[in-house]
Amino acid sequence: MQHLKAGRTLALATACVAALTGVALADPDLTAELVIDGELHLVTRAPSDDVITPNLPERYSGFLFRDPATRDMQMDDFENPAMLAVEEGEGLWSTVEGTAGQSCQDCHGDAADSMAGVRASMPHVNGDGVLWSMENYVNNCRTTRMGAAEPWGWNSGQMRAMTSYISMQSRGMPVNVAIDGAAAPYWEQGREMYYTRFGQLELSCANCHEDSAGLMIRADHLSQGQISGFPTYRLKDQRVVSIHNRFVGCIRDTRAETFAMGSPEFIALELYVASRGNGLAVEGVSVRP
Question: Known catalytic residue: 205?
Answer without folding.
Answer: no
